[in-house]
Each structure stands twice: as C-alpha cells, then as structure tokens.
C-alpha cells in the first residue's frame, strides 16, 4: 500500500476568511510572530501502488473534485 | 408548465420553491438527486440548502449527483435553469456559470431582507422585471461571496450577464456587488438571495420574488 497526499490551498489572490480568523486569534493567545495564515485542505489517498498511471488518475481527481481550479491550487505527492 | 425542483440530501428550500412555482401558475415536479430522469419538465430549479452537508466545498459533491448529468445537458440545450443560494454554488461548480462562491468576507452568516437592483430583465427568469427595478428578497448564507478573475468580471459586465447587484452595503464581499449572474444564452441564472421566500404577503418581506417564477412560466407557455 502507498499513500498519496493532495494539498489544496486557496489561490494567493483569493481572500481566505478562515485563515484570517485563525490569524486574528493568535495575538489573543499571546503569539505575536506570525504575520499571515492561509488555511487549506490535506487529502490522504490510500492506493495499492503509486505508479505513474495511479498518479495521473489522482491528478485528475484533484482537478475535478478535490479542488476548484477557479479558487484553489493543488499539489500531489507520494508519502515516503 | 412543469418546473422540476431537485432535492439533494441537505436541500432546505425545495418545498418553498415548489410552492412558489405553484403560486406562479406552474406545475412543480419533485426531482430526486439520485435519478437519471427529468420527468419531462420544461425547466429546473436547484434550491437552497446545504447539499451533502456542504462537505468539501459548497455544491462540489452535488455537482456529481446523477440527476446533474441530465440537468447540465438540458441547460446546455437551452432549458431554463435557476440556482438559488446553494443552487447557485452548484451551478458554478458545474461550470454552467463562471466564478465561485467563497465564505463571506466578514466570516459570519448573514440573514436579512436584501435590496437588489435588476440589471438584466432579458433572462428566462427575469423577464417579468424591469431594468433598474429594485426588489427586496431574503438573503441567508455563510458562503455567498461571488468571485471571479478580473477578465471574467469584465466579460460578465460587458455582455450584460450581471443579472442582480446588491444595493446598499455589500452583505458578503461579492466582487462588484454581484448578487446574481446568467450564462451567455440567458437560460441559466444563479443568485444567492432567495426569491422563493418572497412570494406571499403573509410571510417574508413581500412578493418581490414571485416574478422569477411567473417569468419562467410565461416564457415556457408562450413557446
């Protein structure tokens, strides 16, 4: 078995209200060093074999379902 | 005149939409998300709510519901399709309409009577309105911020595809105050506010929403 990780993040130019809310909470907790927070999603896909054709399929999954290309970018990687 | 209203798991306003269609003189037909059949309807409404719990993204899973295959094909063939709130999100996820809806910029759910200005009375769902008319219908959403890239926004404005704009303070951070849009052909319309909640004087802010449904019924009857 292998695990493929898909990370989905809001595009840099898209407003991220959730990240802003998290960022806004930090000073209240006494954390002052963080200047910005962006929040995304991480998907862990269990597959039998992370070969080229499976990775191509995962790319397709990420593009059609896991992310919305209008507002989000994604990356695909095989977990070591 | 049969207008189908799709019920997804988590739809909330399907029955209100059916009622609005009936009040407008049409025949509402309940459609089920798992069906591959539009039951011979002349138009389709995707109602508000939280289809599939809004998991993943609002409308993202509903887009792949079996019935949506038929809805997308019918919409591309010119059938009038109206998406309200969650239905608007589903239309964007289905790429029947451009852009996307994201979380309100102020991060809180908004529920209020909202004034809109009608910018395009030439769609299948707005022909009973006049250009520039102001209407008041309820707005209730947590993820109603309409966004698209600048070229898309310019194209929408240039081609008259902005159907409604918010009047007064922008309730959710929608770019250029856009509340609703249509496709190039004018048969597919999506908006965040809820016309089906403003069809009777007894409840809601009045009857300003009724013309959505009479527009479609009139247009379908005259064909």
TrEMBL record, chain A:
* A Pfam family: PurS
E.C. number? 6.3.5.3
Q: In which pathway does it act?
A: Purine metabolism; IMP biosynthesis via de novo pathway; 5-amino-1-(5-phospho-D-ribosyl)imidazole from N(2)-formyl-N(1)-(5-phospho-D-ribosyl)glycinamide: step 1/2
Q: What class of enzyme is it?
A: ligase
What chemistry does it catalyse, as a reaction equation? N(2)-formyl-N(1)-(5-phospho-beta-D-ribosyl)glycinamide + L-glutamine + ATP + H2O = 2-formamido-N(1)-(5-O-phospho-beta-D-ribosyl)acetamidine + L-glutamate + ADP + phosphate + H(+)
Primary location: cytoplasm
Subunit text: Part of the FGAM synthase complex composed of 1 PurL, 1 PurQ and 2 PurS subunits.
Q: What is this protein called?
A: Phosphoribosylformylglycinamidine synthase subunit PurS
Natural source organism: Aeromicrobium erythreum
- The gene for this chain is purS
